[in-house]
Write a structure and sequence with these properties.
The chain is of the alpha/beta class. Helices cover 23% and strands 23% of the residues. The chain is globular. It has helices at 42-50, 70-74, 105-120, 147-162, 213-226, 250-261, 278-285, 287-290, 331-335; strands at residues 3-7, 11-18, 55-60, 64-66, 97-99, 125-128, 172-175, 189-191, 201-202, 205-206, 235-237, 303-307, 313-319, 325-330, 340-345, 354-360, 362-367, 371-379. It folds into two domains: 3-290, TIM Barrel, CATH 3.20.20.70; 303-379, Golgi alpha-mannosidase II (Immunoglobulin-like, Sandwich), CATH 2.60.40.1180. The protein has nine helices and 18 strands.
Length: 386
């Protein structure tokens, strides 16, 4: 099954993406040479994919340069400099990686040549990762350029190389590991959270992904926080949907696939589909769910909750509509457990808020148009019966 990429301009684009690991196993980012599994070259791979009427994508970390790469050895002047004048080492990574300086003219030409070559090879989907590196405040060829300006400058070179100005845009650019606002207007899509399925590389081969429900919860939180960006600034990418067994239960796999399908943006499959058990393959092939991919989730949720350490919660109930609406607040949904709570209206002008009594399990509200009820719920003993 191809991976599906959704853009507002081009509809569904079935894409097979070559992710990290297509370089030699020592991962010398910056040299960008295909490993022995692609002996015929990347152009040959793209041609084979195109025969199946699929687009082909590729992953790169365009601004990162491995300290032991040929590029770092031959062109140290192309790299950002630390306070000591030596090439800056990215402190976020476990291996030594330097950062390409997007303000250096020869580094700019290097990016031009690299991405024009990949575009000629037939790639039309570019996943650009670790982009934050270009925004580090460091010594640059042009000292007047800020980190944010440098990131945009380098990213613009890449975008223009794969989609030349004045010609129809045929390549899709996805930003990953990037500050979101500085990339607006340059990319078609952006990752809005962390990785959710992380394989380890051993002897040049990927092991089973590290995957569990805590990562799915992170995926959901990031989607909830940034869903409003979809189609307004770029297509959101919540990362891949997976049904891996035994890492996920069937229910957990359904949760993960549903989050990705309802994101409204990019929908990617991350499993090795040839090795998935038949019941798990059926999950990622479910036509009822796949039919939801790319649709906008327009309605903001009415209930927003911040849970407290004492078992209570701060609850905001919104009415986003133009008409009055009733709302039944379910305490189990708000606090994680039903029971009895003392409820306080925090929008009251009274110090500490206005007490709304002690309630059990539910509370009925009536919300005027464009309004909110802001409530504090504190565990309490049930009122004595007469």
């Amino acid at each position: 099954m191809p991976e599906l990429v959704k853009t507002s301009a081009n509809g569904f684009r079935p894409v097979i993406q070559l992710d990290d690991g297509w370089m030699p196993r020592w991962q010398r980012w910056g040299d960008w040479v295909a490993n022995e599994f692609f002996a015929a070259g990347l152009h040959a791979l793209a041609t084979r994919v195109h025969r199946h009427r699929l687009e082909v994508g590729i992953w790169l970390a365009p601004f990162h340069v491995a300290a032991d790469s040929k590029l770092a050895e031959a062109h140290p002047d192309w790299l950002l400099k630390g306070n000591d004048g030596a090439p800056l080492v990215d402190p976020r990574l476990s291996r030594a990686y330097h950062i390409l300086d997007p303000t250096h003219p020869r580094a700019q030409r290097f990016l031009d040549d690299l991405f024009r070559s990949l575009r000629r090879d037939g790639f039309s989907y570019f996943k650009l990762d670790f982009l934050y590196g270009a925004a580090y405040e460091a010594g640059r060829h042009d000292p007047e350029v800020t980190g944010t300006q440098a990131l945009r400058l380098g990213l613009k070179r890449i975008v223009d190389a794969v989609n030349p100005p004045g010609k129809p845009e045929k390549a899709f650019v996805l930003a990953c590991g990037a500050p979101l606002m500085p990339i607006v207007g340059l990319v078609h899509g952006a990752r809005t959270g962390g990785d959710v399925g992380i394989p380890q590389i051993e002897d040049g081969k990927a092991t089973a992904p590290q995957l569990g429900f805590p990562l799915i919860l992170s995926m959901a939180r990031n989607q909830a926080a940034r869903l409003f960006l979809d189609r307004s600034l770029f297509a959101v990418d919540v990362d891949v949907a997976m049904a891996a067994s035994p890492q996920l239960t069937p229910d957990e796999a359904r949760v993960m696939i549903t989050i990705a399908a309802l994101s409204g943006g990019i929908f990617m499959l991350g499993d090795d589909l040839e090795t998935l058990p038949a019941d798990r393959l059926a999950l990622v092939r479910n036509p009822n769910v796949l039919g939801l991919v790319g649709g906008l989730t327009q309605e903001l949720p009415p209930l927003w909750v911040r849970r407290e350490t004492d078992g209570g919660a701060i609850v905001a109930v919104y009415n986003w509509s133009d008409a009055q609406r009733p709302y039944r607040l379910n305490f189990a949904e708000a606090t994680g457990a039903g029971g009895t709570f003392a409820v306080t209206d925090l929008w009251s002008t009274r110090r500490g808020g206005r007490a709304r009594g002690v309630r059990t399990d539910t509370l009925r509200l009536t919300l005027p148009p464009h309004s909110v009820q802001l409530l504090k719920m504190k565990p309490a003993a049930a009122p004595a019966r007469p």
